[in-house]
Design brief:
alpha+beta, transmembrane, elongated, Transmembrane 9 superfamily member, signal, four-stranded antiparallel β-sheet, golgi apparatus, single chain, five-stranded mixed β-sheet, 681 residues, EMP70
Amino acid sequence: LHAFLHREILTSSLPNLFFAGIDMSSMDRFGIWVVAILSVVQSSLGFYLPGSYPHKYEVGDYLNVKVNSLTSIETEMPFSYYSLPFCKPSEGIKDSAENLGELLMGDRIENSPYRFKMFKNESEIFLCQTDKLSADSFKLLKKRIDEMYQVNPMLDNLPAIRYTKKDGYVLRWTGYPVGIKLQDVYYVFNHLKFKVLVHKYEEAANVARVMGTGDAAEVIPTIGKKDSDVPGYMVVGFEVVPCNFAHNGESTKKLKMYERYTTPIKCDSNSVSMAVKEGQSIVFSYEVSFEESDIKWPSRWDAYLKMEGSKVHWFSILNSLMVITFLAGIVLVIFLRTVRRDLTRYEELDKEAQAQMNEELSGWKLVVGDVFRAPSNASLLCVMVGDGVQILGMAVVTILFAALGFMSPASRGTLITGMLFFYMILGIAAGYVSVRLWRTIGCGDHRGWMSVAWKAACFFPGIAFLILTTLNFLLWGSHSTGAIPFSLFVILILLWFCISVPLTLIGGYFGAKAPHIEFPVRTNQIPREIPAQKYPSWLLVLGAGTLPFGTLFIELFFIMSSIWMGRVYYVFGFLFVVMILLVVVCAEVSLVLTYMHLCVEDYKWWWKSFFASGSVAIYIFIYSINYLVFDLKSLSGPVSATLYLGYSLFMVLAIMLATGTIGFLSSFWFVHYLFSSVKLD
């Protein structure tokens, strides 16, 4: 059932079904929700909604190959394709329209001279002969080969995929290396063997039939030419085999671009024949073959979304979820029984006995007059909690949309763009929570709410802007395409101050108008002395982060591999489940530690409840350093290491604010509930 829905519902373009205004029965709506739930639970199948309509190509139509930035897992700094001596298109280099997310990720998509004719096999196609390599060009080319840079061609929005065999296993790669170094001699892959997989175009009538609605054919547009009798094809696969071939430089001087080479070219990826030397030119050529495939349009990204070791991934996640759920369940049961027993004993006594017990016993009941005493740096705490709510909300909504398939890898940059959009919109929540918490701590005082709202609007974005600007100067100095252009910097600042800040101030206004949360007990004028502790309380707070870290360290490995090793991460269903579990564990850990501190008469729980769960960020940063040392051994140069640590610091800060907010809000609710349950004069 799920396999059928996965294929057929995707073909029917699910998003348009929502927005076309089609009258659906309740059973149809139930079916859509079933698909949504199945997509989250079974996201290991790579469920996604295609990001665009299929494009119909008739036989003989031109297919133009585009190129993305050169990338390397050794430096993590992308560079423009035409920064190396490659062939340039005759019509000139043109940038493709890119969204905000693509620019932030360092993608620079440009046109290339490679072009094909639909369903026409061609071989020995001469592309160009470059100018003689200067000393600087030769040095740069050798440097890029040493740093293992990859070329990333694209056809119809599909990255080129490359298959290699090692120890009997078939490995998948996106793109191909610039060249190879053997025995201190450098070789450039100057001949490319392309294979394009195509599938016969399916008309909109078939889509209407799958939907089962008679009016569907009228509301869904037909893509392509109106003449349905003309056979058309869709691109469903793009493969490349890079080769090194010794061309005859003299015979190619008279050839023009796209003319046929004079002698046959044998493409063997396991052998090299022509070294690159200073003062010599490089001849580029290519060949292309077309093959009809059974792969349908919605399934054409499956080859990219398959993750190696999926069984290990699945069982590791399940094992982690079971262990953490079991452990958290035990902690929660013990905790609830202990608190309920204390409350029951306390309420069964009469007033005199309660007074006598207060004198004789120690514990959380003795700090009743100090438990809601305002913490130090209260405005900073309110700002961090507000920003944490904003980041947590952004993460939940983004991951949920990605798990449901609305952020397809076919639409590059949508994940980053979506995160920015949701973050700006949720500025309302940040302003509201920070200001209302500020008024609650101040017992309803309105003064200073504007200042708190401003700080909430500028605290995390300001730190992020400082980190990214510093890293951007490093990328600018290296002439990398990963550097954010100045125009984009201006756009980001305008988004910050023209959308995010006003929305945060609006949220703060509503927070100032909303009634503050009243404390169930009065606070004494003279603070109670905290008894000496046997061990530092902050040591326990820092150690508490190990339990939340245990819920996500396995998934963290896959995310880090996706970011830094160039692998595709698209199991957001796993990530969503792990995130839910992380929220639960952070709340429970903070509750338990807050209760333990109150039991030893330590009423300064505000900041400790925040860092009890927020301390998971420390372990994530330590894990990031461990990943740098042991998994990214090939990362070369201080600039690359600085970039890695800078981005890791940015990620860790966001995680600390989000997890700390979970712990603080749960502890605040618990303390409020606990002391409102006790009958006091």
